[in-house]
Design goal:
homodimer
């Protein structure tokens, strides 16, 4: 199935000059959504992990589906202030300003093996924050996986110490 | 499986006096997460729908998993400004202030049948907004489903024109 044809480019979002890759046409089509999760499932075969760490918000849709299909636990990385219990956090620089992500400090135990999943690899700032927090908790990242990779932004460079896979490339 | 025992109450979140029902212990346990999705799957049997409409952000985790398991499409209801293409919106009152939710206007077509899913039914304001937008798009709500229902807040009253089911009640 040509999943790429279900990704819609929306011009000038979130700001002028950016062509946003919108995965909603893929998610709302039952065959494309199922094929995408099946393909992600195949893509991560051979990697042994206990939990999927998924990044808010679109990563939650894919992460929930894949964790359920694989029979592993689901751990969210959320924006600051959203998780109710004790958290660890990581602040990283954006083009203008900064952003902070959080994880529950009891979400992983030392030695656990995790897959980090997000919908899109762009410059790699967000996923680097997730990797940093997983490491803070003493767990190890066995694979970093994406539905889409924007190769022209070279996000791989920022996370090159880890295995990386993506299903669709632009 | 006693899923209720996997819901953690966090006192004074998001503000003093509120006991927040945290579903993260359930999601991060592989057996509890799988059992919850299996039970939601059983709970919605007998309702005929084409798509699951899930509400940001925790609803995305459950909605992604359930839509994939059922082989139906996934449609997000998001906070204002997050969806890239043309949207419809609905603004509703909170205790202090108001909130606006959005859906893509091409996410549903007239006559489609949808399940609306969220993690928690509290006062019902958020899910009412979702129902309103689904109706604006000409689709019909065949069931409104929740992982958790806080019965003492009587949210059912606000959506009593629709079938409602919840897996865990407090």
């Amino acid at each position: 199935m040509d999943l790429k044809s279900y990704i819609r480019e929306v011009p000038d979002f979130p700001k002028p000059g950016i062509g946003f890759k919108d995965i909603m046409p893929l998610l709302q089509d039952k065959e494309a959504f199922r094929a995408a999760i099946d393909d992600l499932y195949e893509m991560v075969q051979g990697y042994d992990f206990d939990k999927i760490v998924a990044i808010e918000s679109r990563g939650f849709i894919l992460g929930g589906a894949l964790a359920n299909k694989m029979g592993v636990g689901f751990i969210p990385v959320r924006k600051k202030g959203k998780l109710p219990s004790e958290v660890i956090s990581y602040t990283y620089q954006l083009e203008y300003g900064e952003d902070t992500l959080e994880m529950h400090e009891d979400s992983l135990v030392k030695g656990e093996r995790v897959l980090i999943l997000d919908d899109l690899l762009a410059t790699g700032g967000t996923v680097s924050a997730a990797i940093n927090m997983v490491s803070q908790l003493g767990a190890s990242v066995v694979l970093v996986a994406f539905l889409i990779e924007l190769k022209f932004l070279s996000g791989r460079e920022k996370i090159k110490d880890y295995p990386i896979k993506s299903l669709i490339q632009f």
